[in-house]
Structure formats: structure tokens, C-alpha cells
Amino acid sequence: MKRNRYIIAYVLLAFCFIKHPVVGQNRSFTGTVTIHPVRLEQVGDSLYIEMDMVLEDVKMNTSRGADWIPQLVSASCTLNLPRISLKGRDEYKAYERYLTLMTNREKASYDFPYIVKKIVGRKNAMISYQYHLPYETWMADACLNIRRDECGCGETAWMEIEPLMEKVTLEYPLIPYVITPHLAYIRPVVEQVKQRDVQAECFLDFEVNKVDIRPEYMNNPQELAKLRAMIDELKADADIQVKSLDIIGYASPEGSLANNKRLSEGRALALRDYLAGLYDFPRSQYNILFGGENWAGLVKTLQHTNIDYRKELLNMITNNSYDQTLKLKLREFRGGIPYQYLLRSVYPKLRVAICKVNYEVKNFKVDEAREVFKKRPQNLSLNEMFLVANSYPENSLEFLEVFETAARMYPEDEVAGINAAVASLSRNDLVSAERYLKRVNLKRNQPVYDNAMGVWMLLKGDDESAEKYFKNAADSGLDAAKKNLLELAEKKSDVIKMEQRRDK
């Protein structure tokens, strides 16, 4: 018989109900955590472990956490299994930051928990633990213990549990159906012309009422060097073609608007002449623009300056029209003392010239794009990055790195965010996936978003919520969501069959 080809051992969990009540030295949480054993079973080449953790009125210390670590223990070997981790609000934020700062290589070798659950306030919940691993002969005599680790307090509580039953040979091996999530990515729209721009702010120093640039005057050497470095980098890139340079001059809001416009435009022209003497761009590529009086810069500076009467100044500026009347109020406020500070320390920084370079980047074939990605990923479009990712084996480090880089290079783009979320789900990184999913506008990319949310819920153990998301995506025609619904239906059917067999 087929069952004679296997050693079929069923060891009920090495404990019945394990409670962790609050005691004097326990400083991580209050309330009760109860472990309900469900299954410890070897079927064929796999060992299946299942248990339910029930939280009753549990409240975590906000800056602490606790881990429950299942262990397979035999006379010859001890194996730690993925842990269940409960964390308070601040500890959970620290964990998220830790994952965010990890490199791809570090993530590949990191021992991810089975689940990390944030506990805010008092919590009643159940966590279903379902795990399987390759069966090895030493596991035949293993029991299952669980260790609680009080994170950060230097205390480790061990619960040594006597096995309730040693072995059970089943006539009908019960193998739980393990769902394989189906993921969907979005192919970004092809950019026929890749238009980009980059800009540098120059806080140039001019003599009073003068418009000519003195390169060695005050802070001008550093400011001009910053501008040259930006343009030199573009000029050195053979894949870039500069199309135009916008020089936008801003004036500080004192004096008349007409004089400020004259000074701002004159100084912008002086900056154009300075650049024209260094670079071979045609004069027709320069656009001179007057940005106006820099009231927005004044408000921003005051918001981050500990000047006396700061709140009164901000109220005055934000509640009045930007005109000569407001300028007069500022000059007369508190006898003019705050205004003198503004003239000396704030207004000079508002006389800024912005040089924005508009350029186009050539389009790349996949082999070219792979090389460009290593050196200048900003030269790639989202579609080119998508093609680069798919030139590597799915879920390889290179595959995942491209999607994460795309999300970083295009932080406001929803397609980049959703693809990075799906890539995170493919490696069971629920924390990163949640962060990317929060960036997505629900009114757009709805089917792929719903499918990703469904997979995220599925991996968290919330089948009911997962099914709702899958149905929404499937109704929109997404094949991956339809397959996920079939997987859920298969799992439900399998649960019924298992219950019927156990009843026999």
C-alpha cells in the first residue's frame, strides 16, 4: 500500500493548553496568551505544524515586544521554527525602520518571523500558525516545545512541555491544502520621449542694486560650483540631450515690485551670460523668467526660525495680500526691530536664482538598460525598469531590487508602488508590502491593487478579507484574482474533508 512507503507519524502538540499569565517579572505585556495545539504530523516528505494562539485582553508595553518561538526537540536535535512576534506601537515602528534600512542581501538571509502583530490598546484576537518543512528522520521522536522571549528585558522564559501523545499512525494522512498565491504586476506605459529635468538653487551674492555676478564675491564660489557640477554631470552623459535651460530669478520682498523685477531679471540674465561663457549651449536654449517676490520662501524660513514674534509675523504675512501695505506693516511692526533682523539674516537668502535644465534621455534596449541600471538608474523609464526586472529569474535578488529601485526613483508613481508591493509579497515581506500599498490611490489600478491586498490578507491569515478583495479584482477580469479564488475554494473544500476524516 502507498502508506507503507512512508513513515507516517502523528504527534499531537507537545502541550495541551499553555497559558502565559501576567507575573511580577513579566514587563512586556498584560493579559493572557493561550496556545491551542492543532497538529504535529509527518506525511510523506513533509512535517506539518499547526497551532492557534488566542489573545485575551492582551496589552503590550508600547516600547516592548515578546516572541513565541516553537521548537522541535528530540534527543539528538533541536530546531527553532519561525516565531510569532507581538510588538507594542513604538517597538513595531522600530521593526519597520529596521526592515526599511536592510539591503536586499540582508533581507535574503534574515530570519523573518511567521507573523509580526502590532498590539495597540487591549487586544482580543486569534493567530493561526500553519507551517510545514521537509521531514527528516530525527523528527520521528521529536516533541514540540515553545519558548517565550521577552524582547529587550534580558529575560527568557522557557516552557518545558511533556508530550501528551508520542505517536499516532493515521490510516488516512491528513495533508492541509497549502494555497499558492497568484500575483499580478502592472506593465508601465512606454514613454516615447523620456523628458526629464533637474534643477539647482543658487543663492548668489550681489552688491546692493547691482546685477553683475562677481564669481569670487562672498559665497558665490560655492554656489556657482554647485551649479556647474549639475550641468557638467549632464554634459558628460552621452545618453542625455539638453533641450533648454530655465533661469528663474526670485526677489526678496522689500522695495517696489518694479525694482525687484528689474533686479531679478537682470541678475538672471547675468547668470545666463556666466553660463554662456562656460558652455556651448545656444542662446536660444536659455529662458529667463521672473519668479516674483519670494513670499513663500519668507514663510518657510520663518516656520523654521526661532525669531522673536515669529507667530505674529507669520499671521501677518499669511492673512494679508502680498503688496506694499504688507511691506509697510512689516517695517513698522514692533518698532521695526524684527524687520531689521529680516533684512540682515533672512531676505538675502530669498534672492535666489534657480537654474532648471530640461533634457531628454535616449531609449534603451533591455541589454543596454541592464547596464544603465547599475550606474544611472534615473535614466531609465518605469517601462524599461520593468523589462530589466523581467530579464532576471522571478523573485531573484536582482528581480526584486529593480522594483524597489523603481519605487524609490519614482516615489509618486502608483505603478511603481504597486509593483514594489507585489515584489515584497512574493517573498512574504508583509511590512514592506503594506508600506507600498498605502501609497496607492484606490481609484486607479483597482484590480491589481485588490489582488495585492487579497494576497497580503491571505499571508496574514485573514482568508475572509482576502476573498472579498479577490472577488472585486476577479469581477474586473483579473486572471490572477480568479485563480486565487479557486485556491481559496480548494482550501475550504479540503478543510471540510479533513474534518470529516477526523470525525471518523
Automatic annotation (TrEMBL):
Residues 10-111 form the DUF3868 domain. InterPro entries: DUF3868 (IPR024480), OmpA-like_sf (IPR036737), TPR-like_helical_dom_sf (IPR011990). It holds the Pfam family DUF3868. It comes from the Bacteria. This is DUF3868 domain-containing protein.
